[in-house]
Amino acid sequence: MGNFTIPVGPLHVALEEPMYFQVNVEGEIVKGIEMYAGNAHRGMEALARERNLFQNVVLTERVCSLCSNNHPLTYCMSVEHVAGIEVPERALYLRTIADEVKRIASHMFNVGIGIHVIGFASLFMHAMELREKMQDLKETVWGNRMDICANIIGGAKYDLTDDLIAYMKQTLEEIKKPCEEFLHIYLTHPQIKARTEGIGMFPYEQAVYHGSVGPVARASNLNNDVRRETPYAAYDRVKFDVVTETGCDVRSRAIVRLREIFESISILEQCLRDIPAGPTVCNPLPEIPAGEAVSRSEAPRGELIYYLRTNGTLKPERLKWRVPTYVNWEALRVMLKDCKVADIALIVNSIDPCLSCTER
Amino acid sequence: MNIERKDSIVALVKSVSADAEIRWTTDDKDNDYGWVEVPTAADLVPMAKGLVPLSGRLVTITAHAPQNPSEKGFYEVCYHFVVKGTTLTLRVVPEGTTPTVPSITPYHKAADWAEREIHELYQIEISGHPNPRPLFLTNETQPKAMERLVPLSTMGNGACTNTLWEKIMGDKSGEVVH
């Protein structure tokens, strides 16, 4: 049986973003991979040093469109930490609401693409239809479908009227049953089971060793949800379960995401019910002193961390961030080992990779 | 603040180096943040190794040009860990004739990409890295790329157009165009 090296990417029909994989195969079995990044590097950390602290809210929102709420949120948290800014109660709820709406849309998108890769076209369209409900909701509430500009240093940039709250509650009610049906199909359909069960194995011990985050870690029974571990926004005021699975495969990673959608709906309902009245932003803002801070949040793909150092001027001395995908790439070496060539795209999709995040 | 967790981190740091300075901050949710000034680069590995049994997880590494640099002008390197919800930053100044820090990838796999990135973007040598291949840039690109970045505005103002064009044409034809 011959040994070959197959190039996958950087532009490939099954990859959403540019990443180059050199896959070593023996027959149709993968024996090893090498990854080459760098096709979407924009030097954003260097750009952040050239902009002032307020302009960087806009810049960080553009790191990635799918996690585009978590980036400015986590960045704002780091500035607030340095300056000791107290965010109003209402803004904490508003931030949580924006975060969870984005999470539902992101998870549904990833699961949908996974189903598309295995050729189940009708269920893929069903997933995109459900995601579209969230896209419509975002467009109605924030006026945009991806970059929703919900955060500002010291609070939230938007507010909810009673009409919008009623509309959001109604939309959530409308997607509950279709989401339950979707999960049921995913759990029971033999085609999905045949293509995803036992594929791309990533055992618990490997998840710990790799420092994996997000649904990739939780599908290997590693519970490190930042919302529970290090509460922020209004996550210490709402009840929710951290979803974990023990299957360690492609199937478990999708099921974690689908079950998290129900937790997100519950969090949203609690926030919309309990949101207090009051200001949405700290006003006036204090001077931003010299200092440093680390802040973390749970983006749809997992833990996002920002490190900020200020020197008393309006420009940050250093702004560094690490996105969840960054630590999950190396997991692919474990997941792809001894898999079939036909499963490569499916396994790569199961870590919900984001190149624009990884390379900045 | 979780006193027990904090004590175990302090005990680890002090067992490696009695001179290490530790300070603590908290945010408005009472989450803890530890900041450690690691005296020598050699102390880094035993501290990183000691964090593994405490369920310490490396999150990322930041290379930073401080406002008040060390005598040699080396960048600082900040290692950000999370120990069960407590964030811990170990700050190290590289040592040697060229700035060098030891690799902690053998204990924290998440350091693999982060160490390769600070090597190629900031020219900080990582001794003992298991896979010291460039991460984002090709082998032909000279190190310290982040610090040599030419702003787009400079490229776009026409000042360097001739130089750039001549270089491209010279490279293509194998001779320098005058």
Give a nutshell description of this structure.
Chain A: This is Ni,Fe-hydrogenase III large subunit. The complex is a heterodimer of chains A (360) and B (178). Chain A has 360 residues and is of the alpha+beta class.
Write up this protein.
- The complex is a heterodimer of chains A (360) and B (178).
- With 360 residues, chain A is of the alpha+beta class.
- Chain A has a single domain, classed as Cytochrome-c3 Hydrogenase, chain B (Orthogonal Bundle), CATH 1.10.645.10.
- In chain A, 49% of the residues lie in helices and 14% in strands.
- Chain A has 15 helices and 8 strands.
- Chain A has a 3-stranded antiparallel β-sheet with strand order 1-2-3.
- Chain B is α/β, with parallel strands linked by helices and 178 residues long.
- Chain B folds into 2 domains: 138 residues, NADH:ubiquinone oxidoreductase Nqo5 subunit (Beta Polymerase, domain 2), CATH 3.30.460.80; 30 residues, no CATH class.
- In chain B, strand 4 and strand 5 form a beta hairpin.
- Chain A: One of its GO terms (molecular function) is NAD binding.
- Chain A: InterPro entries: ComplexI_49kDa-like (IPR052197), NADH_Q_OxRdtase_suD (IPR001135), Ni-dep_hyd_lsu (IPR001501), NiFe-Hase_large (IPR029014).
- Chain A: It holds the Pfam family Complex1_49kDa.
The quaternary structure here is heterodimer
**Lateral arrangement of strands in the main beta sheet of chain B:** 1-2-5-4-3
Question: Uncertain runs of chain A with pLDDT below 50, 5 residues or more?
Answer: none
The H-level CATH homologous superfamily of chain A, spelled out, is Cytochrome-c3 Hydrogenase, chain B
Order of helices and strands of chain B: HEEHEEEEHEHH
Helix content of chain B: 25-40%
What count of domains describes the coordinates of chain A? 1
The biggest sheet of chain A, with number of strands, parallel, antiparallel or mixed sense and barrel status, is: 3 strands, antiparallel
| Overall pLDDT score of chain A | 90
The CATH class of chain A is Mainly Alpha
Number of strands of chain A: 8
Radius of gyration of chain A: 21 Å
Number of helices of chain A: 15
